[in-house]
Amino acid sequence: xxxxxxxxxxxxxxxxxxxxxxxxxxxxxxxxxxxxxxxxxxxxxxxxxxxxxxxxxxxxxxxxxxxxxxxxxxxxxxxxxxxxxxxxxxxxxxxxxxxxxxxxxxxxxxxxxxxxxxxxxxxxxxxxxxxxxxxxxxxxxxxxxxxxxxxxxxxxxxxxxxxxxxxxxxxxxxxxxxxxxxxxxxxxxxxxxxxxxxxxxxxxxxxxxxxxxxxxxxxxxxxxxxxxxxxxxxxxxxxxxxxxxxxxxxxxxxxxxx
Length: 258
Fold this sequence. Notes:
Elements: E1 2-7, H1 15-18, E2 27-28, E3 31-32, H2 33-43, E4 48-53, H3 57-65, H4 67-70, E5 73-77, E6 82-86, E7 94-99, H5 106-113, E8 122-127, E9 130-132, H6 136-146, E10 150-155, E11 163-167, E12 170-175, E13 185-193, H7 211-218, E14 222-227, E15 231-233, H8 237-248
Parallel strand pairs: 1-4, 1-8, 4-7, 10-14
Antiparallel strand pairs: 2-3, 5-6, 8-13, 9-15, 10-13, 11-12
């Protein structure tokens, strides 16, 4: 099983962090959020990644090209121009880094990544800027049971504000950031069959969340895997601070690995 990660957007709403680096490289607890997402998938047995690059994608290439160097003890022999790695703590990951263009939209990036799936018929898809404690393995199992082309994880986001529970003008209780009662939304964690390629246009301007998903729904080829747990995108500086605070307090729900 492979996971495609869309990591090419500009991240304009997080300009404080993304003026010099792509949003997936913004750090939580000293690690890029992209690393956290990949650790989530690896915890559920998905270790083969296809990362779609765009804005400043070379920084993501450099990060993984030097991953062992930054995560191990080393001895450098300048005289012999050699380097010995000690205590290699690299992940057991295989990563394809694909330049999909700085202006390409999500559907265009997905289309360009499909040839790298090889013979795999089923794969995961997500974005490089959100974390969750979703049971990815369970969503994959669910996808295999229903026989449709696509599965989307449906979530109910928390409200930005606490809610007052009122009896007239008397406050009976205060609910701290309850789940939004507005309904279920696209949580950004997909399991897909390779046949969804027929729903993607040949244009880089194709937006996965618009016509392709709408047509899949119209054709009754899209099922929802419901997730009631933690889910948090990193769209703004406030979102990043929230995630950083959870990680610093050792209360990060998405950290399910040892």
